[in-house]
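W.,

You were right to be curious about this one. When I first looked at the sequence I had no strong expectations either way, so I just let the prediction run and decided to look at it fresh. Below is the sequence, 391 residues in total, followed by the output.
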Amino acid sequence: MKKPLRTLGYAAGALAIAALVAWALRPEPLDVEVARVSRGPMEVTVEDRGEMRSHDRFTIVAPVAGRLMRIAIRDGDRVEEDQIVANIAPAPLGARERSEWSARVAAAQALQREAEERADRAQTDLAQARRERQRVERLVAEGFVSAQAADKARSDEAAAADEADAARFRARSAAADVRVARSALIAQAPSGGDAAALVAVRAPVAGRVLRVPDQSERVVEAGAPLMTIGDQSRLEAVIELLSSEAVKVAPGMPVRIEGWGGPEPLRAKVRLVEPFAFTKISALGVEEKRTNVIADLADPPGPLGDGYRIEARIVVWSEPDVLRAPASAVYRCAEGWCAFVVDDGRAKRRVVKIGQRNSLEVQLLEGVAEGDTLVRHPGNDLEDGARVAAR
């Protein structure tokens, strides 16, 4: 009787020792960084540098060839519409040149008529947009349509007002071009004096002088730029995007202007994605195809001026409530995308389906649930079922 008991005791002791050895030799759990799957807002953006520029910028050029008198106006000066900004003593013209200037006057008059027609059409569109906004607001008040319809109507009215202002500025500029062409033709007509009269160069619109390339008296050719005038109260953002990023952008998308020097980002909206690309050499000497994206400011520009550098972030997709996780928690696998879910101290590999993603987060559509714990930055030594210790 004692011998079987002693044998059982030895066997139990051997099992205990084996269990202790197995426990001592078991692999240590891998230290991993984890993050939880949560719900919340998410957005995808494209961002790059750009600059501010005047929405309506006018380059004043020499209407005739001749000797330019010294320009007294300096950068930053305020000028009024039709103010004389420069004077030119024109070179004498022959019959052929005089005929050419007569044709230029006729062409300028045609452009003026076209600009005035466009301005009238823009005013008509503005009046229609204003009536539509009032009609929609009445329908919203009566509960027939949603409040979003009123927001769209107000946005359409604001866009029509901007277009009407721009068309009016273009009509004024065209009228100024006609006056300049006529005065140049008159000044260069044969006269009884020894010298031709000076040709007065006038500002087409009121604004601020952005740049005067050269104030000195000198001989200029017809068409030589004399100065640039712009309205700094109406600025737009010009953002240079890679063409591969620009294809994701569409008019109406929201923009945040950052890195401009102020404490808060400025709001803007994409107005135009230019339909052509240009080649630019990067700082690393690589040729890049870039496209300009034009955005209109919704907030006051403050101290910003023409040519000021900015950083812009364009929101190409956003949702207020999605299932999301850090982008570092998913990785490429044979099935597409995978992630390791920590369950009871072990990492379990799961195939997941993702939607949108940005530099920090990824949208999860299938494979995990809210509250699951995922392994961030899973290494090559992490296997399905491996014991892990969360950091």
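Here's what jumped out at me. Helices lie at 2-25, 95-141, 147-187, 243-246. And, maybe more interesting for your project: Residues 95-141 form the longest helix (47 residues).

Coffee later to discuss?

I.
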